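Lest this sound abstract, we let one protein speak, letters for residues, whole numbers for local backbone shapes, and leave readers to judge:
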Amino acid sequence: MDNKRAEDKKIIIKALSIVFFVLLWVSLLFICLISVLGYVIGGKPIYTCKAYIEFSDAPEGTYYVDILAKIDSSAKGYTEFNAAPKECMYINDQRWYSSLPVSRNSEIAQYNEDGYVSIISHLKGAKMILDSHNTCIDLDSYIEDGERYYPHLDELYLQYGDMKAAFVDREGNVLGITSQFQQVFNNKDSYKMTVSGDTLEFSCDVVPRIYIFGFCLAAILVVLLPPIGIMILVVGTVRRRLRRKRMQIQAKE
């Protein structure tokens, strides 16, 4: 009986050692997976502070398109009036910037419907540059309460939700507002706003949460299935061996 118990102990210790190393392998792999996910999902591309704007089917007289978001007057980064859009001109192959005649009293700066206000007019550090090639929104860092903040477009979308586009003339008069918003995940053509008629499409690097959940679930299953299968095989093998040995011992007795 002592020999039988000693043999059973050896088998159990060996099985537990295999299970331990399998679990260790799974833990290390899972840590690596979480690190990769954190880098892919949490890491920000270089140009998250800039988005190019294209528009079509605009009302007659539209000079540029401003972006509206639900920014509360008590929110961090809010200001009564930030700056007017700037126009870029090329003179003798040199860039020259001049501000559009859009003041704090203009219609776009005063616009506030259902909480939607102009990002350019009311978000610190926000700039709009218009030139003959493209129009872009650029979010620069700003200092508030002694701290420097670095706003990003993806955070802007996550914080304030759906946005709207305003068709504006050169003096800041609002000619029309979009009502449809579409957010598209596109890591090849990131941070682009396309305004067409009544729709604003925001192409960005913010991964929809359902995609993140599905990817994480699939990754966890892929990682856990092999070790779980191995553990089942090991436990089954150990049980069969112990049963066979007991039968052999009972036959001898």
